Amino acid sequence: MSSRRNFIQLTSLGLATAAMQVPLAGIAESIAQKKPNLSLGIAGYTFSKIEMASAITMMKRLDVSNLSLKDVYLPLSSSDEKIRSVVSQLQQNGINIYTVGVIYMKTREAVDQAFDYAKKVGVNMIVGVPTYDLLDYAETKVKLLNLRLAIHNHGPEDELYPGPQQVYDRIKNRDPRMGLCLDIGHATRAGVNPARAVKAYKDRLFDLHIKDVTGNTRDAKTIEIGRGVIDFEGFMKALRQVNYKGVCSFEFEKDMQDPLPGLAESMGFFKGTMALI
Length: 277
Fold this sequence. Notes:
- By secondary structure, the chain is an alpha/beta fold.
- It has eleven helices and ten strands.
- Strand 5, helix 7 and strand 6 form a beta-alpha-beta unit.
């Protein structure tokens, strides 16, 4: 909550400065110089409970175009025709599918299916969760098809990858196209500081799932960004320090029947904080 208070205080200070007739152009220029080049997106699981047309409308209202496509709108078993249709519909609405996932891989057939699916959708990265015994086979597919694989951590409940270190330790000596999709909410619930994780695993940090949580314990819940325990100022400073070039994908798992208000608040807080640090 201290991060949220700091943001509000800084915003108030900016308004007060404007009231004292400081040139607004100078303020805007100063903010622009400080703001890192971050791309924002939406993790498709956010839209699991709503129709695709509504999701498209929400993305337009939020002015965000990058989407990590979850199979709720395009099952892995979809025909080539279905894939072309859904991809075309999204593209015609200005939405860039930059990755697919999260995709779980428990068999060789599932690995094959995931990589074939990604190729047909036209992305160069999969956010996935292969079991340990399939990492060697997944690496052969990465090399064969020249696709990146970003393995996702899922918190204390996840026996495979509860935190980012469990991912990193298993891919650090593998093909450089194998990396990490850092879910900062799940990492926090596993007792990991997201800013420290960004710095520690920067060389394999391919993707981010952005959310806030109510605590750093197993039973913590997702909440609007700025209302929880994550230090977003420190996290964003870490992103700037490592020159992160991937997408920051917001994954909002609260109020999933109507995620727009929570997404708008979360993205507004994120953008505002980024502009002020």
